[in-house]
Amino acid sequence: MKQICATAFLVLAATFSGTNAWAAADAPAKTDDAPVATPAPEPINYALLTHTLVITSLRAGSHDPSGTENYEFKVKMYGLLNSSEERNLDLAKRKKVVVDLGSFGSTKIESLALWREDPKNKEVKELKIEGDRIRELMARSMQEFKAREDELATMVEVTMYVKHRKYFVLSDEAFVAKASYYPIPPTKFDVPLRTDQTLTISDDKGTSVKLSVHYAQPASTPKGADAP
Smallest Cα–Cα separation from 46: which of 224, 178, 193? Predict the structure, then answer.
C-alpha cells in the first residue's frame, strides 16, 4: 500500500512539473531592449545653403512697341511664419520679414528673340545668395515672430520687369511675371534642403525664362560633408 501511494505521488509531481514547463514555454519572452528613440535632427549649417541663381535661357516677349525689350530681374527673400494658418494665406497677407537681394540679369534683346547662357564666352547672368544672408534672415524672423527655428521657412522670389522708353530714356518699368523657391522649405514633406531646382517665368506675350538654382554643396553631397 505504501508503495502504491509513493508511486501515485511521483506521477502527480511529474505532471505538475510538466504543466509548469509548458506554461513557461508559452509565456512571452522577456526582453531588456528599450524603445528606440528618434534621433534629434541636426541643426542647419547655413554656410551650406549658399547657392547661385542663374538665368539659363531667356526668350523675349512682345512688350515694347519699339521691337526692343529691356528686362531686369529683382530678387527678394522672405522669412515666413510657418503655421498651417499662415501657409493658407496669400503672400501679401502673410507675416513676413523681407530682405532685398538686389537685381541682376539686365538684358536688352529684340522682341521674341532667344538668348542662352554661354559660360565659355562669359555670357552669364547670375546672382549668388550667401548662406549667411539666409542665417541673418532666420535670426531676425525668430525675434520678430517669437518663434522657434523649426517654425519658420525662407522663400526667394524672382520678379521680371520690362523697362519702357519715355522721352528717349528708360524710366518706366512694368511687371512681367515671377517665380519663387524655398531655401528652407515650409514642411518636411517638401524638397530636402540644398536641392537644385529649375524655375520658369512666363507670360501670355511670348516670354519664357528658365532659371536654375544651384547649391555649392547640393543634398547629394556624400555623407559627412555637412560637418561644420
Answer: 193
